[in-house]
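Fill in residues.
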């Protein structure tokens, strides 16, 4: 008798099962399984299951576990897709339940979507608590011969409901199948499954509210076991096999489900897109040459031939919407910047001819793949564009893409420990003992740390915890939304993929990106980029301040001031160029042209970064530029003989071996895989092509070897050019509009104390005036005021957004006159100590002419005054008379000492605004000290003497067990790292306290573009 498995829940069902496909299918093959059904509560995991069935040559059945509604009660059933129509209906049922917050399928839905489905009624308690013959009869009437009852005997145990259930099925004349619900692989996995279920429920194992499994035998039985459970009912097993075999579904794969652009005008789309391109290109390149026209015609012919006209029109449409709404868009991303059509339609801002970009790198006529136009938007407005697409092209045709978070090593360790009921200290210990490094597993963490091993074996419960966590590691844990991916379908999505409720009214697919692409849906990436938000805000700040509109397209790409800024590595806040290593690369290369920025963006990656010094030496004439063959010179001249871009490899193949650019792209892709047989095959192809063009075999082989060497290093020039434009624009704004630049950066660094401190330090060095927060003049965020930066009220820690809103609203009616005037004008809900004490400490009320100590002492009086004037926030007794006659007075108090003012500023702003206390300390000591900021300009091993405050202390032990420490020291110019090796640590350990002011002598150490002080002596 053939072996079948009619009900397998897989781990894709998010903590409702621990069955992994890679473990399941080898076992199924071993047992001689002929049919197997996946039955999850959503249609998660369907395609991987289907593919696993295909590879194992096992007949697969798609099922769905749902509840049906009958007379306001819910009953569990399993629905199998028997036909393609049934599969389509399963997509719709799962989508309807997941988008409309329904727990069960209403009668009208079941009637509408029953075609092609088999309905299985399980012998569960819900069916037998009272007489259920009416609901069973209802199902029989709906499904006819496609209705079945199912009996389970897990582990050979007969349910107490079985006899009654058989009687019910016989009464209604419904055939019975033998079934077995599987939720884990092996019998010994039952406990781990319960733990996974508890994680999903968010409860502990000992929680009385925890939903426990019906039985502990939901494992995958062997053929012998399953047959033995039903040895008295062989006809049920045969019925099961017949039911599963009757399910013949084909899931359509590898189609091109491209979206359709709604064209109302009476013209074909090829003519329409050509007209749009002509108009757009004339705007961007007036009097364009024949070269542009030929390139445009060529691209349009390829796009039409590949069937992608609608796609380009749709992208152009939502890009036009974004620009019409003043939403900042990126100049391009990835290979799409290689397209002149995209440039003409204003999808990108990169002229591919000017920058030598190849269309075939984007769309290769010799390799039919879906186009990939990824778009960057200002991150705070990305959602507006997605909403526009859904509104215009149909909400049922538009969805964002699901992703699944998994139980990584640290996540599974903490989740399992929480379910076990571990104490908070144990959870903290787990976090410290397991690395955050990508790729870390529980086994690797155990191998790397004897501490971790010792901690586990301290208690038996921890051993059980670790064993359980190992079984759950890597399982899908939760669903979330892909950061960028959007799907647009030519017909309602439920015709192709199940969907569920998403965010902000946009649906979410139940399948992740790879599965959507496998069935032929086109993914578009709508990416939110913070740097575009910064550029958008800079533009807005300029307009608010000057009433002049700034256009980034007007920025010249040959600006000397911008290149000077880049050459000094002054790139804080500049996209892609902020890291210490990138600053060092810029200082080496000393950019003098836009192409240098493109090159450094492409080179600064593991592997090719080794060529940065070579590029720099050749650029500055310190080394002769050499070419393997003279034919390479025009191709590699711009990068001084170094192959930097993938496009250069394509040019070489085309020029030397006569490849078409499409063939050259295929060569680039093939060679980068580094497979020996492919390398040899392509070598022959390249050499023969070169010989046909008159080159010797030795010359061709030498150039081919060069291509192979650099194939891994090559970076798409199109992407490098597009992203370098953002880098350049930000650099230009920093060089020419520093006040607006830093104002926007500060606004976008809210909540990041370290970044804000770094920016404040730079602002101070550049002598840009920084005005304190003010209840009279500050906006919600940082702003520009008379060429100076004004603190935003939201930068003051502890002040609720609602209080800020209340202040700004009240201020619209006129400036505040005093603390008490504020109390009279805003709601008592917002006027309280918690909200206003931070504002006073930050100096936001200094303009009223009273010392901060006095204002702080008067706060309670002001709160009482507010309660008197507006009791319970209702109109007060004195409203008609005005409250001015009451004339409340400030409380007498001593002036706040400067040291306390500074400490309060540090507390509520995150740094010292008025003055750094170390400046006063230096004045008192009357000694000469090296500024911490100056250390980078010092020679290696140069002796320095510094004075600073300890911001952070990290004590460690060497491999020999000796104690040492790393300090973060801060003075008025910024931070520096200080290293105390064991000898110095032993001498000065007692002086190392947080916030201690220390005089340190030591040697400068420059390593990996980072500077530190090796401590030799400390004085207090």
């Amino acid at each position: 008798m053939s072996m079948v498995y009619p009900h397998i829940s897989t781990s894709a069902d998010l903590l409702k099962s621990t069955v992994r496909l890679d473990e399941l299918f080898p076992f199924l093959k071993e047992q001689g399984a002929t049919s197997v059904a996946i039955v999850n509560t959503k249609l998660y995991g369907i395609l991987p299951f289907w593919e696993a069935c295909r590879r194992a040559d096992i007949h697969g059945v798609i099922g769905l576990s749902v509840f049906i509604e009958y007379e306001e009660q819910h009953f569990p059933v399993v629905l199998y897709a028997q036909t393609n129509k049934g599969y389509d209906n399963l997509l719709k049922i799962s989508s309807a339940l997941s988008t409309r917050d329904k727990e069960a399928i209403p009668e009208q839905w079941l009637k509408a979507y029953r075609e092609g489905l088999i309905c299985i009624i399980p012998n569960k308690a819900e069916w037998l608590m009272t007489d259920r013959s009416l609901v069973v009869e209802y199902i029989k009437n709906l499904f006819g011969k496609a209705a079945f009852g199912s009996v389970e005997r897990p582990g050979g145990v007969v349910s107490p409901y079985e006899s009654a259930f058989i009687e019910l099925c016989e009464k209604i004349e419904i055939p019975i199948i033998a079934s077995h619900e599987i939720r884990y692989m092996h019998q010994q996995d039952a406990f781990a499954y319960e733990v996974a279920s508890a994680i999903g429920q968010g409860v502990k194992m000992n929680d009385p509210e925890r939903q426990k499994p019906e039985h502990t035998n939901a494992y995958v039985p062997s053929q012998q076991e399953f047959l033995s459970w039903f040895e008295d009912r062989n006809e049920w097993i045969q019925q099961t096999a017949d039911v599963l075999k009757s399910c013949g579904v084909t899931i359509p794969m590898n189609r091109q489900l491209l979206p359709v652009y709604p064209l109302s005008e009476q013209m074909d789309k090829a003519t329409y897109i050509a007209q749009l391109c002509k108009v757009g290109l004339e705007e961007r390149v007036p009097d364009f040459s024949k070269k542009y026209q030929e390139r445009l015609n060529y691209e349009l012919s390829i796009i039409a031939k590949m069937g992608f006209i609608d796609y380009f029109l749709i992208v152009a449409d939502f890009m036009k919407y974004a620009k019409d709404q003043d939403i900042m868009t990126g100049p391009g991303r990835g290979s799409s910047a290689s397209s002149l059509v995209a440039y003409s339609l204003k999808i990108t801002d990169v002229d591919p001819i000017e920058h030598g970009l190849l269309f075939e790198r984007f769309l290769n006529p010799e390799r039919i793949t879906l186009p990939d136009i990824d778009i960057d938007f200002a991150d705070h407005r990305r959602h507006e564009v997605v909403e526009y697409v859904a509104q215009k092209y149909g909400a049922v045709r538009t969805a964002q893409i699901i992703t699944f978070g998994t139980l990584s090593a640290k996540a599974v360790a903490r989740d399992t420990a929480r379910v076990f009921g571990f104490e908070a200290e144990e959870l903290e210990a787990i976090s410290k003992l397991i690395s955050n490094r990508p790729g870390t597993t529980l086994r690797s963490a155990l191998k790397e740390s004897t501490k971790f091993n010792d901690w586990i074996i301290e208690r038996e419960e921890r051993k059980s915890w670790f064993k359980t966590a190992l079984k759950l590691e890597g399982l899908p844990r939760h669903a979330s939304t892909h950061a960028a991916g959007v799907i647009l379908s030519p017909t309602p999505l439920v015709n192709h993929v199940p969907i569920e409720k998403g965010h902000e009214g946009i649906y979410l697919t139940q399948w992740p990106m790879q599965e959507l692409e496998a069935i032929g849906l086109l993914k578009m990436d709508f990416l939110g980029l913070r740097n575009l938000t910064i550029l958008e805000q800079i533009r807005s700040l300029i307009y608010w301040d000057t009433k002049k509109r700034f256009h980034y397209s007007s920025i010249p790409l040959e600006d000397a001031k911008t290149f000077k800024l880049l050459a000094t590595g002054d790139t804080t806040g500049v996209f892609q160029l902020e890291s210490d290593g990138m600053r060092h690369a810029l200082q080496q290369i000393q950019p003098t042209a836009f192409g240098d920025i493109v090159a450094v963006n492409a080179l600064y990656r593991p592997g090719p970064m080794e060529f940065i010094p070579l590029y720099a030496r050749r650029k500055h004439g310190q080394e002769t530029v050499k070419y393997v063959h003279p034919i390479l010179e025009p191709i590699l001249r711009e990068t001084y003989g170094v192959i930097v871009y993938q496009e250069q490899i394509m040019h070489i193949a085309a020029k030397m071996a006569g490849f078409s650019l499409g063939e050259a792209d295929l060569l680039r892709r093939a060679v980068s895989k580094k497979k020996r047989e492919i390398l040899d095959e392509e070598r022959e192809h390249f050499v023969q092509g070169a010989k046909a063009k008159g080159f010797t075999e030795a010359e061709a082989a030498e150039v081919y070897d060069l291509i192979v060497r650099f194939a891994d290093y090559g970076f798409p020039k199109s992407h490098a050019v597009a992203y370098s434009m953002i880098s350049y624009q930000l650099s230009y704004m920093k060089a020419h509009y520093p006040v607006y630049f830093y104002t926007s950066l500060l606004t976008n660094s809210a909540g990041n104390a370290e970044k804000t401190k770094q920016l404040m330090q730079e602002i101070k060095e550049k002598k840009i005036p920084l005005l304190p927060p003010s209840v009279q003049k500050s906006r919600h965020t940082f702003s520009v005021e008379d060429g100076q930066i004004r603190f935003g009220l939201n930068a003051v820690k502890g002040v609720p957004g609602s209080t800020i809103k209340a202040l700004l609203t009240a201020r619209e009616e006129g400036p505040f006159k005093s603390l008490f005037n504020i109390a009279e004008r805003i709601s008592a809900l917002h006027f309280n100590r918690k909200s206003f004490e931070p504002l006073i400490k930050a100096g936001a009320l200094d303009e009223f002419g009273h010392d901060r100590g006095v204002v702080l002492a008067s706060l309670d009086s002001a709160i009482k005054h507010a309660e008197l004037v507006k009791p319970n926030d209702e109109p007060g007794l004195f409203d008609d008379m005005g409250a001015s006659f009451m004339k409340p007075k400030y409380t007498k108090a001593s002036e706040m000492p400067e040291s306390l003012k500074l400490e309060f500023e540090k507390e509520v702003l995150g740094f010292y605004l008025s003055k750094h206390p170390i400046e006063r300390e230096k004045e008192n000591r009357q000694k000469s000290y090296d500024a911490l900021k100056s250390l980078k300009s010092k020679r290696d091993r140069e002796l320095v003497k510094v004075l600073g405050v300890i911001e952070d202390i990290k004590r460690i032990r060497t491999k020999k067990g000796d104690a040492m420490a790393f300090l973060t020291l801060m003075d008025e110019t910024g931070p520096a790292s200080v290293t105390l090796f064991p000898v110095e640590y032993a001498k000065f350990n007692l002086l190392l306290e947080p916030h201690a002011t220390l005089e340190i002598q030591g040697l400068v150490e420059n390593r990996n573009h980072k500077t530190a002080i090796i401590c030799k002596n400390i004085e207090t």
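The mean pLDDT is 92.
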